[in-house]
Amino acid sequence: MKNIKYSKYERGQALILITFAIIGLIGFVGLVVDGGLAYSDHRHAQNAADSAAYAAALKHASDSTHNLTAETLAARDIASLNGYEGLAQSNNTVTVTSSASPAGSCPNASGSNVDYKVEIVSRLNTTFARVVGINQMTSKVFAKSRACDSISSGPLYAGSAVFATKVGTCGNGQKDKSLFIQGSSKLQVWGGDLGTASLDGNCIDFAGGEAQLKMQESGTRCANVVTAAPATENSDATWTSLSGQDGCGQKLFNQTIPAAPADLGITCSGTAGPVTSGSSTMNPGNWSGDFPPSGIKTLNPGVYCVTGDFNINNKANLSGTGVTIVVKTGGLKWNGGAEIKLSPPTSGNTKGLLIYLPPSNTSDVDVNGNSNATISGTILAQNSNCYFAGSGQLQKQTIQFICSTWGMNGNGQAEIMYDSTMFYSPSTDPAIILIQ
Question: For residue 15, what pLDDT band results from cuts at 50, 70 and 90?
Answer without folding.
Answer: low
